[in-house]
Amino acid sequence: MTNGSLYTYIQNNIATIEFGHPASNSFPSELLSRLTTSFNELSTNNDVHVIILKSEQEKAFCAGASFNELIAISNFEEGKQFFLGFANVINAMRNCSKLIIGRVQGKAVGGGVGLAAACDYCFATEQASVKLSEFTIGIGPFVIEPVVKRKIGLAAFNELTLDATSWQNAYWAKEKGLFAKVFESINELDTETAFLASKLSSYNQNALKEMKKVLWAGTEHWDKLLEERAEISGNLILSKFTKNALKKFKKQ
User: Fold this and answer.
1) How far apart are CA 151 and CA 198, in angstroms?
2) Which CATH superfamily is domain 5-202 in?
3) Whole-prediction pTM value?
4) CB burial of residue 94 (10 Å; 0-12, 13-18, 19+)
5) Which tens digits make up the pLDDT trace of 28-68?
């Protein structure tokens, strides 16, 4: 479990990707790579009509980047490659020919917000507060900015980014467009997620594929853009400010 876990299972033309990590479902590089591969493989699997993305356990949906791996970055190339992991996942999700439903049962931080935003439709529980805390450690949400801003707009993205120490609740996220619906319990969340996935899997798959292209129109330049953003983060993670901030967090 050091590098986390990822399982994909297919039933009734619905693929479910479930990821997990002991540190609040955060992402080390290896897990990001496996998630990218899963989306790429499912995109060409004719037995799959729709995808559900979820995480393990009942608390955090995703705490973003692996803290231990951030601390271990010692040069620009390592930093760029780490942040490219998130870029590759986002690009795999937008390029995936299948619609992706996000099932967000708990808090999402940083890259976790990016994952939710990269889903085509997202359900959540009342516990699914969101936060972009990157400024507190001297970096910024550069890689996920395009996908989060696309979903919630510039003003809401600005609010999340600049107020880096505050959580915004699930209803705020719904109002801004990150979540389609918010439920009181995980049972309700799972019931509605399964119901929507079942409906989508029964529709004309060619129509869904064409709609996926329409939904992501205008993002064709993101391969280059997100690589450039990974380079920004790869540089910032080496700053004295960030190294000191990471040390402080590690001691807490």
Assistant:
1) 24
2) 2-enoyl-CoA Hydratase; Chain A, domain 1 (3.90.226.10)
3) 0.96
4) buried
5) 999 999 999 999 999 999 999 999 999 998 889 999 999 88
